[in-house]
Each structure stands twice: as structure tokens, then as C-alpha cells.
Write a structure and sequence with these properties.
The chain is mainly alpha-helical. Strands 1-2 form a two-stranded antiparallel ribbon. Helix 1 packs antiparallel against helix 3. It has two domains: 41 residues, no CATH class; 50 residues, no CATH class.
Amino acid sequence: MAEYIDREAAINALDALCDRACVYSKKQRAVMCGACALGGAFDVIEELLATDVAPVRHGRWEWDEHKGCYYCSECGSVSPWKDQDGEDCDCPNYCPNCGARMDGAE
């Protein structure tokens, strides 16, 4: 499974590391970082290809007693999977309408 990081957050973390480890001021580092291994890491991060990643939506199947069916807590679409008792159904772990993961997470 691929994991993704935020480029700006990575640069900020590396910059904070340089603040602690480097003897030069930020102004001096603008020129001196090319001679430092950490300075090269900034270039590597900047040159990495960006990946288009969609945010993950999270929801849950909720029971509607009046309609007698489950619906997606994110988009409100009615699930074709029904359970007469209102108990947990064999609904999929994602909404086929909006793609939300049905794990109840935030």
C-alpha cells in the first residue's frame, strides 16, 4: 500500500532539523546548503514527482427506520442492502455512490 506525504510538511520538517543542526543562520544557509547533505535533501524533495491523491471520505451505514433501509452518512444515498431488523447488514465497506469508506472514522 502506497503512503503519501505532504511536500510542504516534509520541507518544513527538514527546515526545522536544519535549525537545530546547522551552525549557519537561515540567511547564510540560503547560500551554504549546497555544501551540506541536508541541503541536498531539499532538492530531492522538490524534484520528487507529485501524485494526484484524492482525499479519503469516511462514513458509516446508518439505519433509517421510516424508510426501512440503510443510507450513507456522507452522501445520503440509499443502500440496496436491507435488513428488516435494522441490524448490521452485509453492506459493502464503501459507498458505491460517493466512495466513502464505511469505517466510521473521521
